[in-house]
Amino acid sequence: ITGSPGVGKSTLIEKLIREIRKRDKTVGVVAVDPTSPFSGGAFLGDRVRMQSLSTDEGVFIRSMATRGSLGGVARATNDAVKVLDASGMDFIIVETVGAGQSEVEVMRITETVVVMLSPGAGDDIQALKAGMMEIGDVFVVNKADLENAQRVVVDVKNTLSMKEPEEGWKTPIIKTVATTGEGVDELLETIIRHREHLSSSGASEQRKRRVEDEVVSAIREKAADYIIDSLRESNRLAETIERVMNLEKDPYTAVDELLSTLRIRPKGGRMDDPGLERGLTQVYTGDGKGKTSAAFGLALRAVGRGLRVFVIQFIKGGVDYGELHVVGDLPRFDLVAYGRGQFIDKESPDEEDIVQARRALEHAREILKGGEHDVVILDEVNVAITFGLISVEDVLSLIREKPGNVELVLTGRGAPDEIIEAADLVTEMREIKHPFNAGVKARKGIEY
Predict the structure, then answer these.
(1) Neighbours of 408 (CB within 10 A)
(2) CA angle at residue 395 from 393 to 400, to 5 degrees?
(3) Which residues of the chain have pLDDT under 70?
(4) CATH of span 2-201
(5) Burial class, 229, CB count within 10 angstroms (exposed 0-12 / middle 13-18 / buried 19+)
(6) Which residues are paired to 59 by β-bridges?
(7) Which letter does DSSP use for residue 386 in this model?
(8) Do 402 and 279 meet the contact criterion of CB atoms below 8 Å apart?
(9) What class, spelled out in words, does domain 281-438 have in CATH?
(10) Which helix (H) or strand (E) holds 114?
(11) In angstroms, rounded to a whole number, what is the distance separating the alpha carbons of residues 36 and 34?
């Protein structure tokens, strides 16, 4: 039951409850009030207005605050209606704070929408609003004892005549005087008749739409919470706000870029369906050039398909490799390098080299457990094993424990037999010819 403030909804509902109880039926009422700006609680307090019904065990009245919810219906209203339904209430009445042209959310959680109007409150204009006319299954002109009430009835009839009629249902207009109860019995009979109409026609389709709206609404709410929490934890939200404040980006472009880092496709985006159904373990090894290059080629392809990639480099920290310069430019791509950037004595590695390699290993374990990345590349991890910085068993445990939908790539010469055995794909890079042997030094952008 919805309508403009002051139209008499609460008074009519009180009389409607009494009529329902006369028929020995139970009734639950969810009265959605505006929110108090001070306490955040319900402002009008319908339970106070309907206090005389509070001792009736067949009546349950719950007042809920909108808390800024659009549509005139509090976010928890749908849940409250389901609880009342599960408790066995024969009738459930939802009173909203007054539906306007865009406030039609009420129709998503109820089966019959009663729109109330009254003379002398601008309702003759309000009735002409398309949103109000579209949601109404039954129209009530309250305060029918006042002059101009008939004019409101005529205006509604004229407006309804322009609306495409629902098959098998002609929208009725009921005149009531809520203060005396006049017309309330006719209204209840009309509501019951509408329910019977739904049962014999498209009720299942309407219920399907309601359930779909409910599921989509829940997804939207949960997804928003998850996205915002994730962005806060990674500090990406703060960084984006800073960029917008500094006029480096407009909010819409910034949001599209931000969502792309979360594997979420903005409307009009180019990403394919994100995620892997099955992730494998790949090993690129051998004494030939191209192991890291092959891994980064795979990473670029994965990013292009909307996958999230995390690269952890062993023993390469402290060196200015070219790939470090694109980390901030590629979406859904992260890279962290560990190491001192100095020569490592294979026979007697520095303690700091061991510490750095173990940090890299633990970071890899955290990334795999986190489940937020589709492709994880452990660059030069085989070399770290060969140098004794970490053990073969350490890496084997990563392979065993990785989620089934994550692709794990291990690079570096000298891959141990145990790693090769555990992998799904092994490629050996074999040196046939190398320009270094002809005196060509490493070139920036090609070799590093």
Answers:
(1) 23
(2) 90
(3) 33-52, 65-75, 97-108, 121-133, 201-207, 210, 234, 260-274, 328
(4) 3.40.50.300
(5) exposed
(6) 27
(7) H
(8) yes
(9) alpha beta
(10) strand 114-117
(11) 7
Strand-strand pairing, 375-379 and 309-313: parallel
pLDDT of residue 271: 43
* Range list of H helices, 23-64: 46-49
CB 335 within 8 A of CB 303: no
Cα 18 from Cα 59, distance rounded (Å): 10
- Return the pLDDT at 43: 41
Where in the chain do CATH 3.40.50.300 domains reside?
2-201, 281-438
pLDDT of 294 reads 94
Q: How far is CA 153 from the centre of its chain?
A: 43
Question: Which position has the token pair 């509070």?
Answer: 54
- CB half-sphere exposure, 110, CA atoms < 13 A: 26
- Provide the residue type at 91 as one letter: F
On whether the CB atoms of residues 41 and 74 are closer than 8 A, the answer is no
Quote the CA–CA distance of 114 and 117 in Å, as a whole number. 10
pTM exceeds 0.90, yes or no: no
Rounded Cα–Cα distance for residues 308 and 298 (Å): 12
Residue 177 β-bridge partners: 182
User: 396 near 256, Cβ under 8 Å?
Assistant: no
CB 117 within 8 A of CB 7: yes
pLDDT of residue 338: 92
CA–CA gap between residue 446 and residue 448 (Å, rounded): 6
What are the C-alpha distances in Å from 160 to residues 98, 155, 166, 362?
A: 20, 9, 11, 68
CA distances from 425 to 126, 419, 420 (A): 69, 11, 8
